[in-house]
Amino acid sequence: xxxxxxxxxxxxxxxxxxxxxxxxxxTQALKALKEEGVYTILINPNIATVQTSKxxxxxxxxxxxxxxxxxxxxxxxxxxxxLLSFGGQTALNCGIQLFQEGIIDKYKIQVLGTSIxxxxxxxxxxxxxxxxxxxxxxxxxxxxxxxxxxAISYSLEIGFPVIIRSAYTLGGLGSGFAKNVNxxxxxxxxxxxxxxxxxxxxxxxxxKEIEYEIVRDQYDNCISVCNMExxxxxxxxxxxxxxxxxxxxxxxxxxxxxxxxxIYIARDFHIIGECNVQFALDPNSEDYRVIEVNARLSxxxxxxxxxxxxxLAFVAAKLALGFGLHELKNSVTKNTSAFFEPALDYVVCxxxxxxxxxxxxxxNRIGSSMKSVGEVMAIGGxxxxxxxxxxxxxDIGMQGFINIFKKKLKSIRLLKEYLKKPTDQRIFFLEEAxxxxxxxxxxxxxxxxxxxxxxxxxxxxxxxKKIDCFDNFIDLPEELLRKAKKEGFSDIQIxxxxxxxxVNHNISNLEQEIREYRKVKxxxxxxxxxxxxxxxxxxxxxxxYLTYHAIQHxxxxxxxxxxxxTLGSGVYRIGSSVEFDWCCVNALNTIHKESYRSIMINYNxxxxxxxxxxxxxxxxxxxxxxxxxxxxxxxxxKGTIVSMGGQIPNNLVxxxxxKKVKILGTSPVSIDEVExxxxxxxxxxxLKIKQPRWKELSDFDSIYQFIKEVDFPILVRPSxxxxxxxxxxxxxxxxxxxxxxxxxxxxxxxxxxxxEFIKNAKEIELDAVSQNGEILYYAIxxxxxxxGVHSGDATLVYPPHNLYLSTLKKIICISEKISKYFNIxxxxxxxxxxKNNEIKVIECNLRASRSxxxxxxxxxxxxxxxxxxxxxGKKKNKIEPNFFIINFCGVKASQFSFSRLQDADxxxxxxxxxxxxxxxxxxTFDEALLKSMISVGYTVPKKNVLISGGPIESKLDLLxxxxxxxxxxxxxxxxxxxNSFLSHNGIPSIKxxxxxxxxxxxxxxxxxxxxxxxxxxxxxxxxxxELNNDYAIRRYAVDFNIPLLTNARLAKAFIxxxxxxxxxQLLIKxxxxx
Length: 1074
Description:
The chain is of the alpha/beta class. It folds into seven domains: 5-112, Rossmann fold (3-Layer(aba) Sandwich), CATH 3.40.50.20; 134-349, ATP-grasp fold, B domain (D-amino Acid Aminotransferase, Chain A, domain 1, 2-Layer Sandwich), CATH 3.30.470; 357-520, Carbamoyl Phosphate Synthetase, Chain A, domain 4 (Orthogonal Bundle), CATH 1.10.1030; 553-642, 3-Layer(aba) Sandwich (Rossmann fold), CATH 3.40.50; 693-756, ATP-grasp fold, A domain (Dna Ligase, domain 1, 2-Layer Sandwich); 762-886, ATP-grasp fold, B domain (D-amino Acid Aminotransferase, Chain A, domain 1), CATH 3.30.470; 937-1065, Rossmann fold, CATH 3.40.50.1380. The strands form seven sheets. Strands 14-13-10-11-12-15-16 form a seven-stranded antiparallel sheet, sandwiched between helices. The chain has a seven-stranded antiparallel sheet with strand order 31-30-27-28-29-32-33, sandwiched between helices. Strands 17-18-21-20-19-22 form a six-stranded mixed sheet, with helices on both faces. Strand 13 (273-281) and strand 14 form a beta hairpin. The longest helix has 17 residues, at 252-268. The protein starts with a strand and ends in a 14-residue tail after the last helix.
């Protein structure tokens, strides 16, 4: 039967362990189906994704990925087929539920690609082990347990240490190492909160972790597309490890025997499409264990796809429709078959990025459960070049493996401890170990990292030592400079070595001098193409990287000023994620439509913007001054766009401008004036626009003097920040002293900005596009929470739900003044405070903001397309915004990944904490909010609600909602103060005792025994130093997977929504029906 109508399940909001890679794979799959004339229906509440854009899927539903909603979409749309492998673990679990509930059979839906039976066999740890044992393939010694007693007895049988894993989860959720029974009890009790099936497994300490990406079709044609090796041994989750492709330390025999096993497994599981097989390999013999099989597209397959240039998701979607590998063309080269194994003549490094400093109380230890929020992929002619490029791509202020200005540990004992117990700083401790004279043999025995990798790191270190022997870079032998560049040293890295000897130099000038010097010596990088064929056959691709391991460019440059460069968003981190990739992809599409060549510079393997068919040329490269200048000098473009990729391109603007690079759109001088808070504030004073009082201060006396003027609470932050890095609300003297002691060092060079904090103020945002200072189109949205919750964490409502017309008019008037003053041409965002109808400006960004995809999709008007046309110089007319007449509502809610971050306090403040977002649409605010909250994991409580109401203002704020809950029949549990407050107001509640009180109805026991359906815990203040009792309640709620609300405004809105509407009343409407 020919399949004409297919349902695809997305992965929802980005979270730790399940991030942007599924936007990339889902987008590719939808394009592949469209090419075959298949009508596609997509369910994905992640409104910021590329796959939920117009012209990708035929129908898009911004609905929660739960059985209830999927079932109703199926009933309405009646698809003939369903694809489950392109939406991560979320889609796979939904598919298994659909099958188990009989919905697949009832509606006669064909599961395309790998069968449900095979998916269940790969996910269920018991079935998985039995199936592999049946075909004589070794797995780690393990037992599936359903109770704590079983876990203890089987662990004793295997012998400690053991590793704990949860079935049907992603990114090692609920997993951990247990060295003894106490460890085991802690980990297993949490693991049961995420899965009914927990595995106790032998710990293969020091074994290598190897992965193969296998593709198979229905005719049993089977190939290995890519093999990858983890730099770190077993015990560190592959998502937390540096991963290298192709593998570097395997013998020929090891490589081929594991490849053979991976293909054998794919055949036995009847994989149709793609799967990932992970092995543990004993470094001292050829003994192995199969760790797991992912019968779907994964983080590793996104990496393999980008590393090889083989479009895995595109091919997997075609195979799911019934094509054979021999029938498909390689869509990258256009002239070879897809039935071949790619060859690599370069080395790829994937390196994770962590943002653990954003969380209070979190451990920086890394292990079997994922904590990283993003990853980079670097391509080089050698491991050293690739690794150093990759470290710079992380955008954490490190210049590569060698960092001259990094503070070093003073204690060798402590350093060895860190090598033994890995943290997010592991790669930098390895450099410190070499600096401290620890041998690579000893480092190997402490870390179990393969000696080959350590010797490559030592090569880099020895080159640095040789460079350090010279007093001036002009004295460097040409061969040594060439060697350094081949090993990935950047100009600024080399400049730092010499700057350390003579601090009278300006380091930026020194970097520029080194650049000019090596160009004179013809030490320059060359452009190579990834053609999947290791250059064995002539092929032209648009997929490029730069390396010093080449002697000529692979492509010819036109230099006709018809190309436009767009700088991408780089690594995903908290504060910069898939929404900026959506902006970049839409900019590239518009550049193409306007008949220019689109050039993309980006290095994130999870993105759609780094896909082979999105632009005319893709440079998989660093977004650093050195590399961007290299590319601009080769391309000679019409200009460069810096306003689509978030803060990374913004931070380069002035440096590029100083190098005479043509920046398209708003002037770099204006961008700098807005980014610099001092200059921006002066501009606001000049325009007579109100702003909260603030001062830039560099000594303690003036800080204390200013606080006397404005009083607590205050907002403190360094200048030039994205997503509230190191920003805090300080409520009293004690907290201020802690912040100044622990968080920042202040000086005239690094002053601190202190701003009065206005309590209970509404926060409002304007996203707009201007041309030569005139606003062409705008969208105004409001936050549900009061100011004090970072705009990236806040719940956003568009069109605004609760604003006076006079407030809107004032906001538009102020925005027009700002636009005119800075002569804006392109996208921008302004954030406002409103209290008692007085409007103050708190921030402005002369670039696309993270809310652009949300407001564009809700309003059905693509603001990035308009912004790009303006940036390219096309004259556009003013467009009247339609939000005054929109008769529906969009709500953007934030996704938090606190369950992954052991011990982190799940509290919201001015420092951004969310890892992703969703956006849902409803006929009313209540409907849109309820859909959004369910989409980020909240459930409507069945019976029991715990309230710990915080300060008296919050209790009063929530009083009407408490009455409503009681009226609707909910049983209220309350901590001591809240219990007496409710009693005083005639609302019955059951008193529960604080965690430190040993009584029967201790709140922690109620949480552990899953007696509560919703926990509302409002912190006493906005600071990070919270009382232990409140912290314990919040942390337990997360650890035992119970919905938690810590903001009174959001709690009010959520309670109103689920009391006013039942889930059954939520409408099943596609995006185009609004």
